[in-house]
From TrEMBL:
Its EC number is 3.1.30.1. One of its GO terms (biological process) is DNA catabolic process. It comes from Musa acuminata subsp. malaccensis (Wild banana). The keyword Nucleotidyltransferase does not apply. This is Aspergillus nuclease S1. It catalyses: Endonucleolytic cleavage to 5'-phosphomononucleotide and 5'-phosphooligonucleotide end-products. Transmembrane segments: none annotated. Residues 1-24 form the signal peptide. Belongs to the nuclease type I family. It is an enzyme of class 3 (hydrolase). Pfam families: S1-P1_nuclease. The keyword Disulfide bond applies. It comes from the Eukaryota.
Amino acid sequence: MGFKFYAPASLFLLLLSLPAFAYGWGVDGHAIICQIAQDRLSDPAAAAVEDLLPNYAKNNLSRLCSWADRVKFRYRWSSPLHYIDTPDGLCTYDYDRDCKDEDGVKGRCVSGGITNYTNQLLDYGNSSSESQYNLTEALLFLAHLMGDVHQPLHVGFTTDRGGNTINVRWYRRKSVLHHVWDDNIIETAEERFYNDNVEEFTEAIKQNITGEWSDQVAKWEKCSDNKVACPDVYASESIEAACDWAYKDVKNNTQLEDDYFLSRLPVVNLRLAECGVRLAATLNRIFG
Ligand SMILES: [Zn+2]
């Protein structure tokens, strides 16, 4: 698959061509995750990430954390790699049952994508021959897809397309439930509590990681059976959170306000924190 980084002009055109609804945490959600991860990288992982990132984004994985969303229409094959559809109403995820695209091709879901790009990146530093893969592309996909698998509605029900077909009002504005979890909760939190500033929000989550949640971090980082990546665990957590929090008490045309926002924001905070910690842990295992 040919690959190059876009010049600013074509990047601008790509941004203009974004669809009406997005498919991942919004830009801020992904940037928060990648910033948390960047700051937790081991020395070898930080060196590898710096080596693989293009010059204009050196030392800052968070700048390119939404790259995979921007190339979705150029790389049409990649679009099923951002989510998982699970059976309506079941609230469970099963790799063999659920990780496939609309044509039924197995492994073409966000969990399969994470495993695939993790395996590609294990080629890094393999001196015997140059990798057959584009490892810059693999890094950017992995960093992004780890974010997506932690967004509860990226592992949602098939018929409503992870909440994309559920119309809601976010306070006064029209939205869809999926977009509430990608963007609206994060944006409203930034407006209300963090001076409209993504860095301040990121800092607050980082303080929770080293404070309130510090005793859970080792558990988040762990990946059983000596595996390098554990996306199926995260996908199962996501569909559970989707049922317990995202879908709960929401019907078509429900107006969502403070009750919903204030009770769901802690879930969003936790998922962003877990994801940042796990992305770093995964990169540390890959490049360790
Ligand atoms: Zn995505």
